[in-house]
Backbone:
């Protein structure tokens, strides 16, 4: 009897926990959410494709982030061991995280699928993303605090770009925060032949916070903000209308675009995996760079990366990594429109003391090009210009031919050693 009572209590507790997750979902759609799409669909999503782009990032190394995985391994896992936990543990941990934020974090089967993606199936890439968090999270947290927004929104960039500053989506969104061209323009991010400010970590983060604040003033719900950030307010408004006016992400979930259906679950999963990384035997992989130890300078004249390499001997990879917005490695600055450049502090200090000299410096490439142009000027005009010929047609005269080629009769006669103005059909004449 005691065992029977215990089983009934456990079943009741499980059902209560399940109802807490789905109590805001219309009854008809609850089961469809919890069975969700197959893992194959998840792996084909934009979120997963962006995550896997970390494979191609060039700057993972082992010199900046001092990581002692032995010390961090507080649970004594073996190397390569992959811990997994029952639903009850995931649910309990996410319920705890929900008490630490104003975001309505919840657990369901779709969230679980993304936890498995990050903590089991692609854990090597998760280590890279944890390393990049040390680079970009301080910037995100500072800007989110400035706007009095939940700090957990920093995880949104992990979903958008996997913290790859030059990430690009199939739809044309770019950068850490994946701005489309028109939205970026709306939030003062310039896109030109030389500069793509959607790649600029500082400006794009500022723009993302402004954008999310504007969306929050409309929806008053952070998960609806995330959905609108991904799918656009138009799609969210349609989903709200189809859900009978419900202003709740899980209520409108069945009516959202497929990509947006995976958006908040993956956000919750990333929040969970980063917060419980040691429990999953996951540790940051050194990204090979850190923002600390760098500084910014104002550039007030046109400058190329190569000028900085040849004058300051700053590594070209540092310039590219910290300044991805200069897509042609040219900074089109002027006195009235200066641009910001980031580089390791020792080079920034050197730049401040030699600024004018650096602007005036001609790179070796420019010198070599000037030499080639100078040699080209010395080549005789006769050599550079190929001779032109004309075959005389019936009725043509030297005068009509000269007019056609913008020359004179006397020049044609001289080029062809003619003594008179007489010419005949099919005669070949040089005209220049």
Residues:
């Amino acid at each position: 009897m005691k065992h029977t009572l215990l089983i009934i209590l456990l079943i009741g507790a499980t059902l209560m926990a399940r109802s807490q997750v789905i109590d805001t979902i219309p009854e008809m759609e609850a089961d469809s959410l919890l069975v969700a799409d197959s893992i194959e669909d998840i792996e084909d999503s934009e979120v997963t494709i962006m995550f896997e782009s970390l494979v191609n990032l060039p700057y993972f190394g082992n010199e900046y982030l001092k990581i002692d995985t032995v010390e961090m391994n507080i649970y004594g896992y073996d190397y390569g061991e992959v811990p997994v936990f029952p639903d009850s543990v995931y649910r309990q941990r996410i319920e705890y995280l929900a008490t630490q934020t104003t975001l309505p974090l919840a657990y369901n089967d779709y969230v679980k699928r993304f936890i498995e993606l990050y903590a089991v199936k692609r854990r090597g890439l998760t280590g890279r993303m944890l390393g990049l968090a040390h680079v970009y999270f301080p910037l995100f947290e500072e800007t989110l605090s400035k706007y009095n927004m939940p700090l957990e929104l920093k995880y949104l960039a992990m979903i958008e770009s996997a913290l790859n500053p030059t990430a690009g989506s199939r739809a044309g969104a770019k950068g850490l925060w994946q701005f489309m061209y028109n939205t970026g323009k709306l939030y003062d991010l310039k896109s030109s032949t030389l500069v793509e400010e959607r790649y600029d970590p500082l400006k794009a983060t500022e723009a993302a916070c402004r954008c999310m604040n504007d969306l929050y003033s409309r929806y008053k719900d952070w998960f609806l903000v995330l959905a609108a950030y991904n799918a656009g307010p138009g799609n969210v408004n349609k989903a709200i209308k189809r859900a009978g006016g419900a202003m709740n992400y899980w209520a409108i979930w069945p009516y959202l675009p497929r990509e947006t259906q995976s958006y908040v679950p993956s956000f919750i999963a990333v929040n969970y995996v980063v917060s419980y990384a040691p429990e999953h035997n996951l540790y940051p992989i050194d990204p090979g760079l850190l923002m600390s130890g760098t500084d910014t300078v104002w550039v007030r004249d046109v400058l190329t990366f190569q000028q900085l390499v040849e004058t300051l001997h700053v590594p070209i990879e540092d310039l590219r990594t910290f300044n991805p917005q200069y897509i042609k490695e040219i900074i089109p600055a002027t006195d009235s429109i200066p641009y910001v450049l980031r580089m390791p502090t020792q080079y920034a200090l050197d730049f401040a003391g030699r600024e004018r000299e650096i602007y005036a410096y001609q790179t070796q490439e420019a010198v070599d090009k000037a030499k080639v142009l100078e040699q080209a000027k010395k080549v005789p005009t006769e050599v550079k210009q190929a001779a032109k010929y004309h075959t005389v047609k019936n009725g043509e005269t030297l005068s009509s031919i000269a007019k056609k080629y913008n020359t004179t009769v006397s020049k044609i006669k001289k080029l062809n050693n003619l003594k008179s103005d007489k010419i005949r059909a099919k005669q070949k004449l040089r005209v220049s």
The chain has three domains: 36-280, 294-377, 386-430.
